Amino acid sequence: MLEKYFVGSSTLRRYRIGPLGNHIDALAARFHEQGYAVHSARTLLRCVSHLSHYLSWQGVAHVGELHPEHIHAFLTDHLPNCSCERPNSGAFATMPAAVHHLMEHLREQGIWSDCESVEIPPDSVEGTLMRYDRYLGTIRGLSDKSRGLHRSIIKRFLDARYNRLGDLRLAELTGGDVLDYSREALATPYSSARKRSVLDCLRRFLRFLCWERIQSHDLSRAVPSVVHWKLADVPKHLPVDGVRLLLGSPNTGTPIGLRDRAILMLLSLLGLRACEIVALKLDHVHWRESQLTIPRAKSSRQRSLPLPPEAAEVLCQYLQDGRPKTRSRAIFLRHRAPVAPLSSSQVGTIVRKYILQAGIKDAPKLGAHVLRHSLATCLVNEGIPMKQISDILGHRNLESTYIYTKVDVRSLSEVSRPFPALKEN
């Protein structure tokens, strides 16, 4: 595979010597599969060869002798004073990226890991977060995205306690400590939804401490509640004309435009979540049955939905003419190297981009979820039964769908009555 980027026999021979020489062809194949341009791949391979020569000068005979100290010394000591004529010259701005790719490759091959020898104390901040993450995944069954939110919020709580005491001492945690931190969270300028999320995560972490027998009492009762009336909020949505305008915004003459239009079509016609979009794989599309299998996401259950003809046509066009050539089974991918599946945040960015591009005024800033709300609102106004809407959206509880009844303008107009006229004196 190295021959794809370099021609000279002496260059090929030089790149294949040193402790990393046996892995240079695998890295070249990796860059090719991830869609890197030829110039970018050449630059990264030169950097890896540079590192391989440096390791040889340091007496490293094979990759099994590689240690994090070697990498650190190469980046901080050698590069600033580098006078190597070959295989590199000039600036080394891409060197950290090349080292990152090399380390990822070695980890995938099980050859080397910079964290195997690092033992994390179970009562440290990192150790506590690791145990809590396992609890959320195995006991509570939370998704990766939900666990990430819990970890980020609880890390702030643990860091604040460690900075104040110099140690966690979670067994000595009191209701007063919990109440003090809750007051600080409520005093922040965040929205009520954000404050509610912080306190909910704290409440669940305190139950975890009781589960682990770190605390003998359930301190979650000390966490105050943020007042929020059930079904008090009206879901923000786009009108039908706004959705049509949004679907016509992507330039389908480009691969990215084909991808983005397929994403917008699935979001608006099937009400998928962003996390469900990024989890879709080629095996989830059943063309003969005109069905789409939605993998487990927030609801922790798999469901099947009919694939509308217009969505199937747009999706088929993207897969044939727009999707990058890759071994990945994910449907929606980045179009810049490294070619990889999109993330949920990137799907939200795509929706916001086209909302601005379409010039939709007073558009809610909710990203991908606004199209889910828009579909539910449209179905309610068309008189579709709540159970069917709940099945389409993948709600486990029918009560989650009832919030959309407040936007059923047609039904509300039917139950309205004229105000009785005032009698004249």
List the domain count as a whole number.
Answer: 3
User: Which ranges are low-confidence, i.e. pLDDT below 50, for 5 or more consecutive residues?
Assistant: none
Task: Give the amount of beta strand, in percent.
Answer: under 5%
Helix percentage range: 40-55%
CATH architecture descriptor name of the largest domain:
Orthogonal Bundle
Give the ordered list of helices and strands. HHHHHHHHHHHHEEEHHHHH
The name CATH uses for the topology of the largest domain is hpI Integrase, Chain A
So, the CATH homologous superfamily of the largest domain? Answer: Intergrase catalytic core
Oligomeric description of these chains? single chain
Mean pLDDT: 85
Helix tally?
Answer: 17
Which structural class do you get from the secondary structure elements? mainly alpha
Structural description of this entry:
- The chain is mostly helical and 425 residues long.
- Helix content is 51%, strand content 2%.
- The chain has 17 helices and three strands.
- A hairpin with a 4-residue loop joins strand 1 (285-286) and strand 2 (291-294).
- Helix 2 packs antiparallel against helix 3.
- The model has no long low-confidence stretch (mean pLDDT 85).
What's the SSE blueprint?
Blueprint: H1 9-15, H2 24-33, H3 38-57, H4 68-78, H5 95-108, H6 125-138, H7 144-165, H8 175-186, H9 192-211, H10 240-247, H11 255-270, H12 274-279, E1 285-286, E2 291-294, E3 303-306, H13 309-321, H14 344-358, H15 369-381, H16 386-393, H17 409-415
Antiparallel strand pairs: 1-2, 2-3
Helix pairs in contact: 2-3, 3-5, 6-7, 7-9, 11-13, 11-15
